[in-house]
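Interim report, section 4.2 (structural modelling).
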Amino acid sequence: MNLKRMFKQNGNGTAGANGAVIHMNDITKIYDTGKIKVEALRGIDLAVKQGEFVAIVGPSGSGKSTLMNLIGCLDTPTGGDYRLRGEQVSGLGRDQLADIRNRRIGFVFQNFNLLPQISAFENVEMPLLFGGVSRKRRRARVTELMEKVNLADRMHHKPTELSGGQMQRVAIARALAMDPDIILADEPTGNLDTSSGTDILSLFEDLWRQGTTMLIITHDPAMAKRAQRTVEIRDGLVN
Amino acid sequence: MTGLIRILQLFARSSSAQGKRAVLTIAAIAWGTLALLLMLAFGEGMKISLYRGSQGMGSNLAIMWPGETSLIFEGLPSGRPVRPRIEDIELLKKRVEGHAGISGEMHNGGVVLETDYGTRTARVIGATHDYGEIRNHIPQIGGRFLNETDQRLRRRTIFLGNELAVDLFGEEDPVGRQVMLNKTPYTVVGVIIYKVMMGNYGGMESDHAVIPITTYKAQFGRDRLSHVVVKAADPARIDELVSQVHRVLGSKYMFDPEDPAVFSTWDTVEGTQTTTNMMLGIQLFLGVIGALTLLVGGVGVANIMYAVVKERTREIGVKMALGARPSWITGPIVLEGLAYTLVGGLLGVLMAVGLIALLDMIPTKGNDVLELMGKPTLSIWIGIGSAAVLGIIGLLSGYFPARRAAAIDPAETLRYE
Ligand SMILES: Nc1ncnc2c1ncn2[C@@H]1O[C@H](COP(=O)(O)OP(=O)(O)O)[C@@H](O)[C@H]1O
Ligand SMILES: [Mg+2]
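Predicted structure of the assembly:
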């Protein structure tokens, strides 16, 4: 099933300049809470190539999550230049940003962020629904993904009926649903016991071997070691 | 288009709110709708009854009382009384254009009427035969009003007010029976139907009797009219008709047609207009009260939707991260608010229709207060107006919470400490 062709009618499908999926230049982010201004990012340069597995490490409060939000178009930078597959992101409208998140980004969170009222199946289906995929194709795609993360038998369970590791696998299936350009994971094993964490790590490795581009924020040295490349953030700057 | 489908799809999937709160909110809307509809229906019923009452006397009339001149005219002094005669009615009918009937009346307020059953002192009116039509003196079944032959032959025929008829004949049918009028025998030809009256002059119609104007002249030896009644074909031209009467009678009785004092005129067209304006005011007032009650319900819906948005903040943030456009978030919320409002509204409409049908079964005839209030009535305009108010309140009660949802910052919501 060639999902790239299915979902990305308007995407160019190829990497932009220098083959980079992500290209950031002098990105800054200042949180203005009224009283105080927090300079979370102070000039980040970052490039992630197609098929890379990058780990982002750094102490708590250094700006890792902020960086991920900017890459994922959940937030906009205060300054600097950000291109996703060569396409300028700043200046896009809310609908266009939503579409980018839907088609090009797959998020994995530390606390899973599954919707508790609906089944695993429906959680994975959600991005496909936003992407306007037909019911038949949604069904096929969700089934395929649930098999991929080894949860075909838990498809119709609610998240509360699953273990932490299983929940994170559902979340990964959801992140993969629209076959995004990149998977962004913010401390994906932070809430898991060691053995579940190892499971998730090997799942990521499998995905990477199959060609998925990955950017993972982690505190886990084991995970950082498996990555092709490690980027360390300190005080809002790449170290 | 696809956006709308997406919104409907998502709306169908959105978990609906907390049962108990939803039920209470729907009940509040139903109550508000009921209040609005009842208010408007009572207003409408009152309007109909007032209108009917004002029409009871006859519509588009000018009633003109002769008085004295107040202006010097062609060397004649002011202060001269003007008293048109019976023959002037024919003159006016010929010379005034655009009338739908002209009649004259003569009144005698203290006439003794006597039958075997009882004696009454009542007002007796001498009038031309078309008075029945002009002044809405509709006979009960089995009787008739005075006719042209009665007038020409100066017959001693009499038409009775319905209450007067009861005083003189009890429960029996008076038609064809005799009444002694100042000791002279008259034959009853008809009794007026029961009417709800709002405006009046010269006493209640239910309590007076009418005889042919010619007979009146013979009986009482007078031929000066107490007043002239003009009915306009077109209510908008009533003033012009009154001026024509001034001109015709002015040249005969030598007074200035512009002299305002010669006739005091009561114009029922103006009265009808006043009634209409007053009713519009009352209905507006009732409508606003009803709409405010409904608004309270709307605030309830908005509140429940605010709570829903607050509860689903994380869910909304997740959906945004997964690529939901803002309108796919807000659309289902607006629809949900609208759905509560419309369900409540529908319940309210059903209750209102049922209640009004029940009220309709209560007899009002004979009870003055209920009669004046009229029957609460729903009209197409009430329906359209209430639907519009409901729709607007429904949309607003969803719109504001939806706006708050759209303002949710996904990055902020999904932050994990
Ligand atoms: N929404 C926000 N408003 C204000 N300050 C923020 C906000 N988000 C993050 N920060 C601040 O920005 C800095 C970087 O935070 P974050 O990116 O979450 O760090 P990390 O993920 O590396 O722990 C911290 O000092 C944090 O307090
Ligand atoms: Mg963080």
